[in-house]
Amino acid sequence: VxxxxxxxxxxxLLDSFQKNxxxxxxxxxxxxxxxxxxxxxxxxxxxNAVSFGVVKMNVDxxxxxxxxxxxxxxxxxxxxxLQGQIGNPEGEDKPNKSYYDPRKWVRCSEExxxxxxxxxxxxxSKSL
Length: 128
Prior knowledge:
Elements (H helix, E strand, L loop, with lengths): L11 H14 L7 E3 L7 H9 L2 E4 L2 H19 L7 E3 L2 E5 L1 H4 L1 H26 L1
């Protein structure tokens, strides 16, 4: 995991490969590249990489973080209901089953991951 900008990507190398071997192979862009390590990449690097033949971008780190962030946000918002099976801010005898039910917090994680995937899709779609 790297802070955005800490890794200097060189998508222009992909363009160089295409231009060098394209005429020899009889195709303008003979390679279909996979962009490993797309998580945290600058949008301009993504745009350039796609224009140079990247057809798949891996963003596993970003989607893992998004999933975790959904759970974290759920916990922060509902922590008073997640300290025991009974007893919460509404009363010491109030049940909490609907809050610690995994379907609730898993859903929040899925929503934040979905939202992150949509950001990546939009970034890639702008580049096509």
